[in-house]
Amino acid sequence: MTHISTYTSCAGGLAPLQASLLDLEASTVLQRTYNPHLVTGLLQTRAYATAVFSACVDVLDVPDDIEQAVTARLARQRLLGNPDHQFCLLIGEAALLRTVGGPEVMAEQIRHLQAVLTHAGPNVEIGIVPVDAPLVAPGANFVLREHSVDIETVIGVTTSTDARELALATRTFDRLCQIAAYRADAHAILAGALCSHTSEPEGPLDLS
Fold first, then answer.
1. pLDDT (tens digit, 9 = 90+) per residue, 114-126?
2. Are strands 149-153 and 156-160 parallel, antiparallel or unpaired?
3. Distance separating alpha carbons of residues 103 and 195, to the nearest angstrom
4. Using CA atoms, how far apart are residues 14 and 59, in angstroms rounded to an integer?
5. Distance of CA 23 to the CA centre of its chain
6. DSSP letter string over 147-187?
7. Which of 141, 131, 140 is nearest to 181 (CA)?
8. Residue 81: exposed, middle, or buried by beta-carbon count in 10 A (0-12, 13-18, 19+)?
9. 82: alpha, beta or left, given left = phi > 0 and alpha = psi -120 to 50?
10. Closest by alpha carbon to 135, among 174, 176, 171?
11. Global pTM?
């Protein structure tokens, strides 16, 4: 197990860390991600990512390279269209209700999720864990790959390649998958979240 401090990984700004994930994710066949607090980076819009990185720069007091960091994050999203890579991305409903960057940013972000949920290929599965779902396993945001798991904390990222810990992370993820909402149910949650940030009524689901 290794732990890399945020002050180490972001000493030169946020963009180098985002760029480093390009090669890592390109070499990953199956990536499973759970984030209860924010929309996962692979599904963020430019405005949402900018707001997230702005908050990070402010609290970390690191060099301001937000524009470059956002560009690198969006570049990572190209892999979603590659059928040779499988993604299972879980988002907590609370992340959709939290205001990141303002109501307009959130509305755009939720509409983007609606579009991805509707049109993504079979290699991308998106689930939303409802706020009223039962507790099945404790866990903060983490990324699970074939041979490692990254757990993000307020002070850095802890990475483990231990077989027993990987099994625990996999078991935790599988249980979260069981309580997550998919397809039409996920669309319903997104519609409700959109309504909370706008005055738009919940309309019919676009499942075309």
1. 999 999 999 999 9
2. antiparallel
3. 10
4. 12
5. 18
6. S-EEEEETTEEEEE--HHHHHHHHHHHHHHHHH-B-HHHHH
7. 131
8. exposed
9. beta
10. 176
11. 0.93
Measured distance CA(41)–CA(158) in Å, rounded: 18
Asked if 83 and 121 touch (Cβ cutoff 8 Å), the reply is yes
According to DSSP, the residues that pair with 129 across neighbouring strands are 92
How many Å apart are CA 138 and CA 133, to the nearest integer? Answer: 13
Token digits for 100?
């990141």
What token pair was written down for 113?
């999720």
Residues in the chain: 208
- HSE-up of 109 (CA within 13 Å, CB side)? 30
Alpha-carbon torsion angle 32, 37, 38, 40, nearest 10 = 0
DSSP state of 143: E
For 138-183, write each residue's pLDDT tens digit: 888 999 999 999 999 889 999 999 999 999 999 999 999 999 999 9
